[in-house]
Amino acid sequence: MTDFSGISGKVVVITGGARGIGLATATALRALGAKIAIGDIDEVSVKESGTAKGFEVYGRLDVTDQQSFESFLDEVEQQLGPIDVLINNAGIMPAGRLVDEPDAITRRILDINVYGVILGSKLAVARMLPRGKGHVINIASLAGETHIPGLATYNASKHAVLGFTDTLREEYRGTGVRFSSVLPTLTKTELGSGVSTPKLLRPAEPEEIADAITRLIVAPKSKVRVTTVAGAISQVVGLLPEALGDWLGRALGAQSAFLDDVDSAARKAYESRVRG
User: Fold this and answer.
1) Residue range 5-274, CATH number
2) For residue 258, which of 82, 59, 22, 95 has the smallest C-alpha distance?
3) Which residues contact 66 (CB under 8 A, 6 or more apart)?
4) Could you report the per-residue pLDDT of 174-224, keeping only the tens digit for each?
5) Ramachandran area for residue 54 (φ above 0: left; ψ -120 to 50: alpha; else beta)
6) Peptide bond preceding 227 in cis form (omega within 30 of 0)
7) pLDDT, tens digit, for every residue of 79-101?
8) Residue 259 and residue 151 in contact, taking contact as beta carbons nearer than 8 Å
9) How confident is the model over 33-47, as pLDDT tens digits?
10) Is 154 assigned a catalytic role?
């Protein structure tokens, strides 16, 4: 049985914490006694969530802006003390064919999903290294280990997060600062709205991802995949010859899940919000 007592009193910062996986994680950790700070670009939603859940710190955070990020971390440390864990969770997933993706959206995906993770990690590590302890957890995706039509730029961003996190793990080995990646399957959040689930798989609940993150904090390791079945399929497909792996992906429905099978009406609100 896992002992979660070590989480009590830890200062945890979560980006993209107003909803979805970020909010579920903040809620789970708060219940275990962690001191929680959530930041989100949606100032109204983050204040509503922070107030409703009784988190210690909450406010607007633009992960693509160095001043915004640094100021937020400064506020957290002034109010709660040194940051123990940073969870880089903020991310967006516009879907569609690459030729239909405006350049502004391509840059927005990369700015939030890649630069935001790099910036947050850099700022956190600079604070953690002098203390010789800390943990940076970057939310990637199983899409970072495979290729899914309709998510070309998103796939690229999550491949980048995995490579970045693995590199930091080696670069700072022995310093006391830990680095982990979390690879969720399609999850029941607004990000996955209107998307069909590939065969043999089920969408994860946000609470399942939160549980995996909680366990990572207690017992750090380089990667955790959620769900177990989806993670196993992703790893197996990656080991197969290219033609066979591609065939299996098509057989499971990955070819159309984010293209022809999308319920555009159900996804409209999310797409409008993340596309600005």
Assistant:
1) 3.40.50.720
2) 95
3) 119, 123
4) 999 999 999 999 888 888 787 877 766 788 899 999 999 999 999 999 999
5) left
6) yes
7) 999 999 999 999 999 999 999 99
8) no
9) 999 999 999 999 999
10) yes
d(CA 240, CA 150): 22
Please give the span between the terminal C-alpha atoms of the chain, in angstroms, as a whole number: 44
- Confirm if 113 and 153 have CB atoms less than 8 A apart: no
Two tokens, residue 133: 């302890």
For the chain, the structural domain boundaries read: 5-274
Beta strands in the chain (DSSP E): 11-15, 35-40, 57-60, 85-88, 134-139, 177-184, 223-226
Amino acid at 5: S
Place of tokens 């998103």: 154
Contacting residues for 173 by C-beta, under 8 A, at least 6 apart: none
Active-site residue, from 115, 154, 172, 270: 154
